């Protein structure tokens, strides 16, 4: 891994935006009047452990069934202990990959969330390191 690929910690200075107190529906519209507002710090909202959080840009389509698409930016937290069914950033043969962790008994696998990709079962001599746990996916919705 070159130094250009080394993760860089996030800037944890407050980034404050206004959050409306109302939820919004994705179905039929609802009245929007008389809803409270408050200021929130996006760092406090998105980063469970700011000093251990990093952003990564996603390449590929192996996780599309959980809403992680090519070009998305994921938040990865290194302080969270990876557990069975967590989505993790793993390193296999010195390559980063985002997959769902399967860990039952002595069986450890990495599962894609796209049926076009087979599970990653480690072969003799292969090393798996879980770099961190994916906590959020940030997707730009505005094109252009």
Report on this structure.
This protein is mostly beta strands and 144 residues long. It is built from one helix and nine strands, in the order ββαβββββββ. It has one helix at residues 42-46, and strands at residues 16-20, 37-41, 53-57, 73-77, 87-92, 95-104, 107-111, 120-121, 128-138. Strands 3-4-9-5-6-7-8 form a seven-stranded antiparallel β-sheet, with no helix packed on it. The longest helix has 5 residues, at 42-46.
Q: Unreliable runs, pLDDT <50, ≥5 residues? A: none
* Helix/strand structural class: mainly beta
Number-wise, the strands total: 9
In DSSP terms (H or I, runs of 4 or more residues), the helix count works out at 1
Mean pLDDT: 87
| Distance, first to last CA | 32 Å
Radius of gyration: 18 Å
> Which strands sit side by side, in order, in the main sheet?
3-4-9-5-6-7-8
Specify the overall morphology.
Answer: globular
Beta content comes to 35-45%
H-E order? EEHEEEEEEE
Topology:
Blueprint: E1 16-20, E2 37-41, H1 42-46, E3 53-57, E4 73-77, E5 87-92, E6 95-104, E7 107-111, E8 120-121, E9 128-138
Summary?
Helix content is 3%, strand content 38%. The chain is built from one helix and nine strands; from the N terminus they run ββαβββββββ. The protein has a seven-stranded antiparallel sheet with strand order 3-4-9-5-6-7-8, with no helix packed on it. The chain has a two-stranded antiparallel sheet with strand order 1-2.
